[in-house]
Design a protein that fits this description.
single chain, alpha+beta, Immunoglobulin-like, Serine Threonine Protein Phosphatase 5, Tetratricopeptide repeat, 3 domains, 7 strands
């Protein structure tokens, strides 16, 4: 029997016969082999000729809660809706860079650039509630008014566009426009404020103040 045959025929040492160092080396070798095998499978799972893939994703609030019924639009693909868990699946998404747009009536729209590389890609988008956005606008505008920086307050208020009116924004807008000397626009803001229930006393005070201030 030559050396090669003797080598193959030699009995494999039992695990309990190995030293602790040998057992550790054997475990590391096995772990490395598993990692390499997994990596090869992942790298070769995408056909070089593939131009579009399925993409998964999730839409959540700033607090991490799932948002259902959000509309998700990816470049060159029909929009889809998120399910009750805030998840969505988009088919035939072109590989490469594109845009993801997410909309929901209770949240601020988000448009972000994405890079699609394969079917394992997951898109996670967080939306900020319009209420939270309005609260931030109000706080920032009030801070500017306290500093008597009415131009800055007007810029802050003008930066926010929302289909759902907010009496706080109308009130601040009226005050800022009045202090900037834009009386006609201030009266328009007061008229918007007057449409909200429970604002009659504030509206009367504003109108009286403006009239007295510009006699």
């Amino acid at each position: 029997m030559n050396r090669t045959l003797r080598s193959l025929a030699a009995p494999t040492p039992r695990a309990d016969a190995l030293t602790p160092q040998a057992r550790a080396r054997a475990c590391l070798s096995l772990f490395a082999a598993l990692l390499i095998g997994t990596g090869i499978a992942a790298c070769t799972s995408l056909d070089p000729g593939t131009t579009a893939v399925r993409v998964h994703g999730m839409v959540s609030s700033e607090n991490g809660l799932p948002i259902s019924d959000a509309e998700v639009s990816l470049t060159d693909v029909e929009p889809v809706q998120t399910d009750i868990r805030g998840r969505f699946v988009v088919e035939n998404v072109p590989i490469g860079r594109g845009l993801a747009t997410v909309r929901h009536p209770d949240y601020r729209d988000v448009e972000t650039e994405i890079g699609v590389t394969g079917p394992a890609d997951v898109i996670h988008v967080r939306l900020q509630s319009l209420r939270a956005v309005r609260d931030h606008i109000v706080e920032s505008a009030v801070a500017a008014i306290v500093r008597s920086d009415f131009a800055e307050a007007h810029a802050i208020l003008a930066s926010f566009e929302d289909d759902e009116p907010d009496p706080r924004l109308s009130l601040l807008d009226a005050v800022v426009l009045w202090r900037l000397g834009r009386t006609a626009e201030a009266h328009l803001a007061i008229a918007r404020l007057d449409r909200f229930p429970g604002t009659a006393a504030v509206v009367a005070t504003l109108r009286s103040t403006i009239e007295e201030g510009f006699e």
